[in-house]
Amino acid sequence: GDWNRFPLQTTRGCPWRCDFCASSIMLDLPYRKRSMQSISSDLDAIKRVNKRPFIELADDNTFVDQRWGRQLCDTLIEHRVQWFTETDISVADDQELLARLKNSKCRQLLIGLESPDASDLDGVELRSNFKRRRAHEYVDAVRRIQDAGVTVNGCFVLGLDHQTPDVFERVYDFAMSIPLYEVQVTVMTAFPGTPLYARLLQEGRVLEPGRWDLCTLFDVNFQPKHMSVDDLRSGYYRLVKRLYSAECIESRRRAFMESQWNTG
Hints:
Elements: E1 5-8, E2 11-12, H1 22-26, E3 32-33, H2 36-49, E4 54-57, H3 66-79, E5 82-87, H4 95-103, E6 106-114, H5 130-134, H6 138-147, E7 151-158, H7 167-177, E8 182-187, H8 195-202, H9 229-243, H10 246-263
Parallel strand pairs: 1-4, 4-5, 5-6, 6-7, 7-8
Antiparallel strand pairs: 2-3
Helix pairs in contact: 2-3, 3-4, 7-9
């Protein structure tokens, strides 16, 4: 067929309740996983359309259950596809799972790191402060994943309540020091229905209530706690310009490729 990228959902929801996350509100049921039989059925249908598809798992956090995740990798190996998904940093804890990720041709994991330092993350995750507890392991964990041959797209949210204007430099330094193969930076966005929106509205910090057209992940529509609106907007634009320059991208990706040649 003319298409080579296909979405496939294997899990739904996420046990971590980040206050800014709209998915947690839309999918407000227990975390659930599909059977390997039903996933295989979908993969068979996709391969009837394209024999060499690239699969994008439409999950919020695929590898919450790592034992189930190893079975998923085995299923993907059987179907001989390349794929991508989103998950959390705990995937780095399981060396057997990391090995299967590479063997199953997982090309990238998107992981919400949110901020480079633990102190910025306090209270972001409402249920168990998962990200706050894991942040001190970020550097080693991301390196373990990439050393296993799977690239990481590390995602950061700018404008969190504990962040100060030095966060932009800290995100840049973090991305370059690992180095991260891909980086995604967005502005904290209060989507309607989220705990974050309710809190910011109560605190009088939503600049234009009802302006859902500004919920783009790139516009600033709230008053940050430890910087001005302009600090956040201009700092974000400068960071984006640096991170996504051709020179910066080439430097980060070259480091990954060289590590694979050396281990390979």
